Amino acid sequence: MTRQPSSPGIRRRLSGAALFVVALAAAFGAVFSAPPAQAVSSCTPDPQTACVQGIIKTSAGDPAAGVALTLNDGEQKTTSDADGRWVFPVTKAGSHTVAVDPATLPGGQFLKTAESREVTVELYESVSALFPLTDDPAATGSTSPEPEPDPAQPAETQPPTTTPGAETSAGTTASGDGFSWPRFWQQFASGIRMGLLLSLAAVGLSLVFGTTGLSNFAHAEMLSMGGILAFLFMGLTGNIWLAGGVSVLIMAIFGWVQDKILWRPLRKRRLSLMQMMIVSIALSIVLQNVFQFFFGANVLRIDPSTPATVTLLGVTLTVQSYIAMGIALVAIVAVGLALKYSRFGRATRAVSDNPALAEASGIDVNRVIRIVWIASSALAGLAGVLLGLVLNGISWNTGWHFLLLLFAAVVLGGIGTAFGAVVGAMIIGLIVEMANIWLPGDLKHAAALFILIVVLLVRPQGIFGRAERVG
Fold first, then answer.
1. What is the spatial order of strands in the sheet that 85-90 belongs to?
2. Beta carbons within 8 Å of 53's beta carbon, 6+ residues apart
3. Dihedral sign, CA of 222, 228, 234, 240?
4. pLDDT by residue (tens digit) across 126-185?
5. C-alpha pair distances (Å), 58 with each of 82, 135, 145
6. pLDDT band at residue 36, thresholds of 50, 70 and 90?
7. Lowest mean pLDDT among 5-9, 186-190, 224-228, 362-366
8. What is the mean pLDDT of residues 227-250?
9. Are 88 and 98 in contact, with CB atoms under 8 Å apart?
10. Cα dist. 86→35, 68, 415 in Å?
């Protein structure tokens, strides 16, 4: 006969079960009734996540730490860190509202614009919401909200955090606002940076023209491809150095493939230079459409983190800019030394001067051209990676925006001469950036091309080109 549990035992078990149920309900209640999660210190865009971020600085340019911000009326909360940075990860594309609590601003600082801003973001993207501060309480709310970051502008100029016409945290002011020596040196440094990055691509374009006579309009798409590859491999590896190195290697292979399956067969069929140029335009359009089809029109952030800035001698640039300038300078010097002193460099110069005579002298012209295509694509890919870091993003048509500047640099320096391409690129880069001091930003490229026309009227062969008699 089975023994039935006593009444006290049953009561104890029922009491234990009841306590467990109450504890479980309390745990669920704590989870679901907890306040919104405090913000994370970093955010990396991915297919399920977008980032709304920014930097808050005082009117003197110092980081504003401890400023409280909310997303979508309290859906998320955060405070700016010691560098004034803040970020909200979001998992839903569309419009989001970021608000600042004015009571948490540093003493003596006031918001220049409204307390809240609405931003629109797509997944796998980052956008900035800007809240510039001022020490003048009368200026609060007197200006319109700052514009969203422009991926065509250098990263350190993207968020301005001071009054219009004054020095920003990056040391630049709005285009055409007048001359000042701090601004002059800031724009001069930006021009050096742009010139170095243009030089990388211009050297390859000039070498291809010198050895084949082809004006390769698809060269600009090598820049876009290099940046897009870096974006893809950065997502896979998380290491910008590895991503950049693999991208340049793939671009070098792509240069070999181009010559192997396209340009050499066309040369063997003796197509005219005009026909080959049209083929290059067609290739450019095909690549642009392929990029847009697979990646859309969005700006692709190679490095999704908010760029840090460094000020040297009164000039403020992002850390990526300093690194990009150093890499570009080393690559340009290496190419120059190789062309000047190596056996391949002498062979390349011989082919550029007279292909028929070079072939008669025992030089394998096709091999030289093949290596030139490899080096040209690799340099253009490296330029694309560095531009993507400096401009804080790359898109399907980034290269196309720089195409005219590349041709201007090559023609100005003396078409077909690598050293001339470097000098021409530096001049074009300086003109483009420094024109902002006196002209609106929309005219800076026009200023560079106008200078090109003036120089060619005086010296048609370019700075380092050789005058040739025609007829």
1. 85-90, 50-55, 126-128
2. 43, 85, 86, 87, 88, 126, 127, 128, 129, 306
3. positive
4. 788 888 888 777 665 544 344 444 444 555 545 433 333 333 333 333 444 567 888 889
5. 13, 8, 17
6. very low
7. 5-9
8. 95
9. yes
10. 19, 9, 48
* pTM of the predicted structure, to 2 decimals: 0.67
In the prediction, which pLDDT does 47 show? 65
Q: Residue 335 has what pLDDT?
A: 95
pLDDT value, residue 16: 55
The token pair at 371 is 């290596």
* Residues 204, 269 contacting (CB under 8 angstroms): no
Report how far residue 88's alpha carbon sits from residue 78's, in angstroms, rounded to the nearest whole number: 8
Secondary structure in 3-state letters for the chain: CCCCCCHHHHHHHHHHHHHHHHHHHHHHHHHHCCCCCECCCCCCCECCEEEEEEECECCCCCECCCCEEEECCCCEEEECCCCCEEEEEECCCEEEEEEECHHHCCCCCEECCCCEEEEEECCCCEEECCCCEECCHHHCCCCCCCCCCCCCCCHHHCCCCCCCCCCCCCCCCCCCCCCCHHHHHHHHHHHHHHHHHHHHHHHHHHHHHHHHCCCCCCHHHHHHHHHHHHHHHHHHHCCHHHHHHHHHHHHHHHHHHHHHHHHHHHHHCCCCHHHHHHHHHHHHHHHHHHHHHHHCCCCECCCCCCCCEEEECCEEEEHHHHHHHHHHHHHHHHHHHHHHHCHHHHHHHHHHHCHHHHHHCCCCHHHHHHHHHHHHHHHHHHHHHHHHHHCCCECCCHHHHHHHHHHHHHHHHCCCCHHHHHHHHHHHHHHHHHHHHCCCHHHHHHHHHHHHHHHHHHCCCCCCCCCCCCC
pLDDT band at 371; cut points 50, 70, 90: very high
Which of 340, 302, 332 shows the shortest CA–CA distance to 429?
332
| pLDDT attached to residue 38 | 44
**pLDDT value, residue 138:** 67
Q: State mean pLDDT over 389-397.
A: 89
Compute the C-alpha angle 368/371/373, nearest 5°.
110
* Burial annotation 147-166 (CB, 10 A radius, 16+ → b, else e): ebbebeebbbbbbbbbbeee
d(CA 462, CA 454): 11
Structure tokens at 342: 């190596």
